[in-house]
Amino acid sequence: MAHEWDNMLGSLPTAYRKDAWVIALLSAIAGVDDAQRADADETAQQMFLDSMTWALAIEERIAGITPAAGATLEERRSVLQAKWRSATGKCDVDLIQRVCDSWQNGEVDVDFVDGEIVLKFVGAYGVPDADALAALQSAVQEVIPAHLAVQYLYRYLLVREVHGMVISTLQTHTIDEFAF
């Protein structure tokens, strides 16, 4: 950081600015200062869920979460965010929606129909990845009252949607995205 070095050197009396010993001392101080600034920046990044890395394990332990083996940082962050969001207030559709919004795909609409919680996947077609879906289901089960059932509705390509598609567009979808 030349800027910090210039500030330190410029604050000295003119006679010292060319002294080899003083320059070596300031160079050593600048190295320590740079390392401390980098450490402070890294520590500050641990305060935010989107950039959290090594502090994620600490937050998971505090929240009582044991991450799934092989879970990615993004999956672990989603689980932690769902836990944080579920820790406040009574359980209602808004709370369940906030938990679902913390899911890594975040494309779930929550409703309450005929005494049942309905989670409708509105993003990608087909059933989501098994590990990600299991994490979402676990987070939802943790916040809802035990006596309420949960229904999961997945989005598939329907005949009326496929009817106007050209072959090249159809070929961009896998078979598990179609309803039969």
Question: Brief description of this entry?
Answer:
The protein is mainly alpha-helical and 180 residues long. Helix content is 49%, strand content 9%. The chain is built from 8 helices and 3 strands, in the order αααααββαβαα.
Write the element-wise H/E pattern from the N-terminal end onward: HHHHHEEHEHH
The number of helical elements comes to 8
Q: Whole-Å distance between the termini?
A: 63 Å
Question: Compute the gyration radius: what is it?
Answer: 26 Å
Note the beta-strand portion.
5-15%
Q: Given the C-alpha coordinates, what overall shape results?
A: elongated
Q: Give the total of beta strands.
A: 3
Could you give the order of strands across the largest sheet?
1-2-3
Low-pLDDT sequence parts: none
- Percent of residues in helical segments? 40-55%
Major beta sheet summary:
3 strands, mixed
Average pLDDT taken over every residue:
82
Quaternary structure annotation: single chain
Structural class of the secondary elements?
A: mainly alpha
